[in-house]
Amino acid sequence: MLIFSGIISLIVMCLSIVIFSSFPVSLHEKSGSKKLRTEKKDPFSYLFEVYGD
User: How far apart are CA 53 and CA 39, in angstroms?
Assistant: First the structure.
C-alpha cells in the first residue's frame, strides 16, 4: 500500500507541474504578443537566425 500511495503522489506531482506550467504559456499566447513580435525585433533573435537574412 505504501508503494501504491507513493506512485499516486508522484503522478499527482507530475500532473500538477504540467498543469501549472501550461498557465503562463496560454496567457502569453492570448496577450497579443504576436503583434508585438512582428513590430518590434527581439533582442535575442540573432541567436535563432540560422540562415541569416
Answer: 17
* Proportion of the chain in helix, strand, coil states, percent, rounded to 5: 75, 0, 25
- Any idea which residue has 504559456 for its cell? 25
How much is the CA Rg of the chain, to the nearest whole Å?
20
Extract the C-alpha cell encoding 11. 503522478
At 5, the pLDDT band (50, 70, 90 cuts) reads very high
CA pair distance 15, 39, nearest whole angstrom: 36
The whole-number pLDDT of residue 22 equals 79
Whole-angstrom distance, CA of residue 46 vs CA of residue 41: 10
